[in-house]
Amino acid sequence: MTPPIPMPRRARARRLTRAIPATVAAAALVLLGQSTADAHVRVQPDSTVSGSFSALTFRVPNESATAGTVELAVTLPTDTPFLYVSTKPVPGWQAGITEATLPAPVVVGGTTVTKAARTVTWTADPGVQIGPGQYQEFSISAGPLPKPGTVQLPATQTYSDGTVTTWDQPSPPGGPEPEHPAPAFVVTAAPATTTTPTTSPTMSPTGSAPVVAASAGGGDDPVARGLAGVGLLAGLAALAVAVSARRRRSSATGTSTHG
Fold first, then answer.
1. Which of 12, 78, 124, 197 is positioned for an S-S bond with 128, CB 3.0–4.6 A?
2. Could you tell me which residues come within 8 angstroms of residue 214 by beta carbon, excluding any fewer than 6 positions away?
3. Against a cut of 0.70, is the pTM above it?
């Protein structure tokens, strides 16, 4: 027969038994918080450089345990509109782009724009949805990107049971993320461009005289000077030989005449 466990061990066992559920609950809360944060609709650009075209991919997770996502609508900016927008096909989903008149004309890449793409909507075909525990990605190609700054792209997520979640809250810089943050990304400055020297004449900084930028070596090359000197000597030698030969022919002609 197994001897009875001393009281101190029993007390430790009871404390351990009570601690296990609390630990599991705490871990569950942490994981739940992480999954909730990761469940937001977010946008990932493949380029953030001002003036470039970028593929903007929206990752849409399903947050409902009982319904599926059947529609996503993304609102595009009007203060910094995109001149061109196109959608990437997603099997089982229909994409549509709606244009709207801008509140005021905007110059984009030298073009004055009065009307631009305002909303992009993806609608699931019958029987298709983003189910519980699943996510889907939707992409557009847009550009040119505006000047450096933050671009907000609010989104509306519709479920099969009629529930609508709006992702439109701006995230303050350095502050806590709101409950329903709007998808956003930061546009970066374009790198400085460099000019390549050419042989075409350009004006000097003062504009007083043209200067020629050489693409290869300059006039101070010692090898070039040496080759030029050799060529000059060869030319002089050839000239001397020609003069000497002419004199000999002249001398021969004069001798035969006097004979």
1. 124
2. 197, 199
3. no
